[in-house]
Predict the 3D structure of the following.
Amino acid sequence: MVRGIIAPTYFWPGATGVPDGWSRVILAATYVSTVLLNPDSGPGQQQIQEFVDITRQSQAAGLKVLGYVDSSYGSRAISDVLSDIDTYSSWYQVDGFFIDDMYILDDAQVDYYQEIHDAVKNSSLYANESVARTQLIFNPGAPDVPEAYLPLADTFVSFEGSATSYQSFQPAAYTNNYTASKFWHIVYDCNSNATINATLQQFTNQTAEFLYLTDLGLPNPYNNLPSIDTWAQLLSYMANVHIGSTSVMTGTNPAPQAVQAGRFIQRMQP
């Protein structure tokens, strides 16, 4: 099974030459497929040149850049959601969109999310673009999404929570009827080798293509990348998957071809 990383890069790009989180992600583009652009819980009120530049740098490295849009569990005016989508497209020329806070109590909001899907996938803005241009991720943060929603996005965040709660994660019954690319798991509080190993082992047993783990925790586990060592262990795992190994190798046995990005940044640090 193909595996990869989607990184919620909800932080400001560093100054030129500074080894910040964005630089570390770009160096790890072999294993990271997608990053999220989130200037101000959305596109904000004005175009910001630093985010224009980092979007271009990320895309040049082969990463897809998705604009963050909040749907407020289906209560936000659809016109505001679509306005954010248009703004990202105009200011940053993103490759798609990450729709946060998805409503999943029942299928009452299918039409709402269908409208988002249609705006992204079918509008004239994207009619002549590649499929990659229109990547769409919905984030319910839980596995129990009514199946009626599943055709409306390429990928769903079917787990978002702590390393401890991930150990009892149970996917929806329909999960194995879909390709692994339909699902992304986000795990925070991976703050020891034991929890990292347990998280990677649990992920190995799941039908999910994408993983993001971090040693950061609440209230905001996404205000930077994981520590150098945690990031290196995640890259090591992905390297072993890419070469066909199903073993979990972390801690004192990182794959050298995978941790180069992490160690390179560490050497640059004062």
